[in-house]
Amino acid sequence: MELDKMDENDWKYHGEGNKSLVVSHSQHSRVLRLLKYPAENAEYAHQTTEQAFRHIQNIVDFNKNVMRPLLGEKYVHHGEAVKLPLDFVRQLSLKVQQERPESRCDKVMDTFSGCAVCLPNLTHISSCHITEHRPSLCIEIKPKCGFLPFSRHVSKEVKRKVCRFCMHQHFKLANGKWKRMSRYCPLDLFSGNKQRMYIAIKHLLEEPQNNFRIFKNGQLIYSCKDDGDLNELIQQLKPYFFPSNGLINGHQSSKAVLNELIQVITGALLSSWDSGRTGEPRKGLPSEGRAHCEASLLHRDMLRNGNHCLPKDCVLSKILQAQMLDSLDIEGIYPLYKRVEQYLEEFPKERSRLQIDGPYNENFLEKVKNCPTEDDGSIEYAVGKVHQYRVAMTAKDCSVMITLAPCREEDRLEPDMEIPLSKPRFTYSVSILDLDPKPYENIPHQSKLDSKIVNYYLRSVQSKHEPPKASLYLGRDCEDCTLVFHSV
Ligand SMILES: O=P(O)(O)O[C@@H]1[C@@H](OP(=O)(O)O)[C@H](OP(=O)(O)O)[C@H](O)[C@H](OP(=O)(O)O)[C@H]1OP(=O)(O)O
Ligand SMILES: Nc1ncnc2c1ncn2[C@@H]1O[C@H](COP(=O)(O)OP(=O)(O)OP(=O)(O)O)[C@@H](O)[C@H]1O
């Protein structure tokens, strides 16, 4: 890609989140990730190119030097900071505007700095070992927080029983962010128990919100949008899972297609280098202590069904370990944040030594890894815990991309390149994206949001005696957890 010969016609809108907009190249397997800012916020437009580039470089450094060592080299692609011609960026912004969802148009793309991150397009797979040329499938999951807080600082008992995602659903519905409640529970996805994972993915398929997307050949084919139709998805998926099977059809076949899809996703999420080789997962993070969420829609039998482990080094295990760096919960972190603030008021020059705003280098990672376990009253302890909390927040908001390419019987693949025990055969890759550093300044906001979510949940579920999500659906779903999709 020659930066001085950029043509907006080579690029198309790919997707966006709250902070960035992504465009993909029509020939090369690359994407550009450009930052966005609130339309009314003129401050960004006035930052110098150097400041904007520093900001982008900070994101790349955080990915490369902090998240990559923690999550694993094979999962994290840090990309590179690039400086694009301003004319190209302005034309691109005009070109993509009509494709953008209305709900995201409260922010505008940065057309002033020309700075962006260039990354591999993770919806594609590069494998020279396969002879099949059907387009790749890519499943994107934003799993969110997979454990209940275990900190002694937690003041509301409900936080130890109901997970943040499930409580947050009530608040989101009340605020109009979503119209329908998601029945997905992250604790089920992270459980390592295949039945629970199955139900979790099924709920993501039923109500994807911003937690689930499917791409075919790099094009979004299923998401929260109205055109995310399950029937259409099944038609698109059938050739992958039942390429020549005319025997099953109708409702049964739809169920079978989704069943296969979920099995393959589960296989990719649980696979680690070792399990690929031996077919047997090496034991890793046990689910003990992570228990289950009382709002989840699971049958008691399924929960009683023993403790399960996430295989060591599988993508979910890596993400969960990083999330669990939040050992104090926001309730324990907020007082430490205030300790840091007070210290910085007295000694403002210490801000750079303590690496409050980076640089995100090996030293920063050391501070995250070697933070004292007991509070000795020091500023080092407070900063170390705040750094750990910010890393955990990033891991709680990242996404996983599973990219699959069908392969033929005759294709020769290393065991770790193939979804274990899957028929039909798929080669695959798993990546983690959206690993930006969460701003230090956001901590007071996190503290307020936490109280709002918990208080709203308690008010809506307990005071009004509304049945929790679980009892609303028990019975309808749980008799047969091998698959009870509603007819489509
Ligand atoms: O606070 P949460 O859990 O709602 O997470 C926010 C996400 O909302 P979600 O609940 O996943 O729909 C939110 O996602 P959406 O904009 O809702 O798609 C962002 O990812 C936000 O991160 P940032 O401020 O852009 O860096 C996320 O904020 P952080 O808390 O990660 O900073
Ligand atoms: N390297 C990549 N390859 C393919 N698609 C990508 C890549 N990076 C991002 N995307 C797509 O673009 C979307 C938006 O990117 P991203 O999640 O990084 O945005 P964000 O604004 O940081 O999100 P958030 O709302 O979580 O803050 C992703 O959900 C994903 O579908």
TrEMBL record:
<dbReference type="InterPro" id="IPR009286">
    <property type="entry name" value="Ins_P5_2-kin"/>
</dbReference>
<keyword id="KW-0067">ATP-binding</keyword>
<keyword id="KW-0963">Cytoplasm</keyword>
<dbReference type="GO" id="GO:0032958">
    <property type="term" value="P:inositol phosphate biosynthetic process"/>
</dbReference>
<dbReference type="Pfam" id="PF06090">
    <property type="entry name" value="Ins_P5_2-kin"/>
</dbReference>
<keyword id="KW-0808">Transferase</keyword>
<dbReference type="GO" id="GO:0005737">
    <property type="term" value="C:cytoplasm"/>
</dbReference>
<dbReference type="InterPro" id="IPR043001">
    <property type="entry name" value="IP5_2-K_N_lobe"/>
</dbReference>
<dbReference type="GO" id="GO:0035299">
    <property type="term" value="F:inositol-1,3,4,5,6-pentakisphosphate 2-kinase activity"/>
</dbReference>
<dbReference type="GO" id="GO:0005634">
    <property type="term" value="C:nucleus"/>
</dbReference>
<comment type="function">
    <text>Phosphorylates Ins(1,3,4,5,6)P5 at position 2 to form Ins(1,2,3,4,5,6)P6 (InsP6 or phytate).</text>
</comment>
<protein>
    <recommendedName>
        <fullName>Inositol-pentakisphosphate 2-kinase</fullName>
        <ecNumber>2.7.1.158</ecNumber>
    </recommendedName>
</protein>
<keyword id="KW-0418">Kinase</keyword>
<keyword id="KW-0539">Nucleus</keyword>
<keyword id="KW-0547">Nucleotide-binding</keyword>
<dbReference type="GO" id="GO:0005524">
    <property type="term" value="F:ATP binding"/>
</dbReference>
<comment type="similarity">
    <text>Belongs to the IPK1 type 2 family.</text>
</comment>
